[in-house]
Amino acid sequence: MSRPIIIDTDPGQDDAVAILLALASPELELLGITTVAGNVPLPLTAANARKVCELAGRPDVKVFAGCARPMLRPLHTAESVHGRTGLDGPDLPDPTMPLQPQHAVDWLVDTLLAAEDGGVTLCPIGPLTNIALALIKDPAIAPKIREIVLMGGAAFEGGNTTPAAEFNIYVDPHAAHVVFTSGVPVTMVPLDCTHKALMPRAWIEELRALGTPVGRATAAMLSFYERYDQAKYGMHGGPLHDPCVIAYLLAPGLFGGKDCPVAIETASETTMGMTVVDWWGTTGHPPNARVLTDIDADGFFGLILERLSAL
Ligand code: BDR
Ligand code: CA
């Protein structure tokens, strides 16, 4: 039986690959996609999610627009990484599939309340605003969630948006605090893990060589996307953050980590959005998250290539 999931996202080229990977994987049942403001403002993320579904030949997927800004702080976007549209690189047509009329937070609440206990896995790969507001709007959804597997934060790696903070958590640290203190099982894929998943140039060329619309568009997206990290960090290839979440559901054996107490910094402007991971158990607090720090990068890139070749 396939595993029901919801992807909450702010596409983003790496978000797009995460969506494609989920759509290409029969082990997963994608109930819907909720979009949030993050890499670019909400109207663009809501359009980009639909562009990706149409690229995959799946205009039937339900896409809902959610929150237009973080809970308390002004929206901080990342056009410098993802381009003006958020999905720069390929020339994808404007979507013709409809955006669902319901607000993403309301749909999350309705869908989760209708599910059985532990029935749905949430996959947030953007700022956590929609997920936090759903948990606030109706706490009765918490037991319905099997697990929240999210891309965000850093343990030992330092930040990519400030010296202390990773983008998704920095943009809405208060929402992250709500999620990490919700009591729902959380698996966190931080930069420590994703910075070990650097895209080999030959792998991008293999995607292009698939010769399919998905292969060509994905290669174009990732060629655009990796230039930022290469220029900024001198990395050999750009890190492919968000697909790690979906890959973890498909092949958890590719990842390694540890259960830890994790707190979110919401007070100090210097370290705002830092994920304070108590790796050595110094606080004595019970763990509230599984923190993944290791990845078999060859296995990860092999999995994506194999799955996307079927789309
Ligand atoms: C995260 O920030 C976004 O730019 C990416 O899509 C990813 O979700 C990495 O810090
Ligand atoms: Ca993202």
Outline the structure in words.
With 311 residues, the chain is α/β, with parallel strands linked by helices. The chain has one domain (3-308): Ribonucleoside hydrolase-like (Inosine-uridine Nucleoside N-ribohydrolase, Chain A), CATH 3.90.245. 37% of the residues lie in helices and 17% in strands. Strands 3-2-1-4-5-6-10-7 form an eight-stranded mixed sheet, with helices on both faces. Strands 8-9 form a two-stranded antiparallel sheet. Helix 2 (42-55) links the parallel strand 2 (28-35) and strand 3. Helix 1 packs antiparallel against helix 10 (213-233) and helix 4 (104-113) crosses helix 5 (129-137). The longest helix has 21 residues, at 213-233. The chain is globular. The two termini are 21 Å apart. The mean pLDDT is 96. Beta-D-ribofuranose binds at residues 12, 14-15, 39, 78, 81, 125-126, 151, 160, 166-168, 241-242.
Give me the CATH architecture, please.
Alpha-Beta Complex
Order of helices and strands: EHEHEHHEHEHHEHHHHEEEEH
| Percentage of β-strand residues | 15-25%
Number of structurally distinct domains? 1
Largest sheet: 8 strands, mixed
Biggest sheet: strand arrangement: 3-2-1-4-5-6-10-7
Task: Predict the CATH topology.
Answer: Inosine-uridine Nucleoside N-ribohydrolase, Chain A
Helix/strand-derived class? alpha/beta
CATH class descriptor name:
Alpha Beta
CATH level-4 homologous superfamily: Ribonucleoside hydrolase-like
Alpha-carbon Rg, integer: 18 Å
- Overall 3D form: globular
Span between termini: 21 Å
Helicity range of the residues?
25-40%
- Quote the average pLDDT: 96
Bound molecules: beta-D-ribofuranose, calcium ion
Number of H/I helices: 12
How many DSSP-defined strands? 10
Give unreliable regions as ranges: none
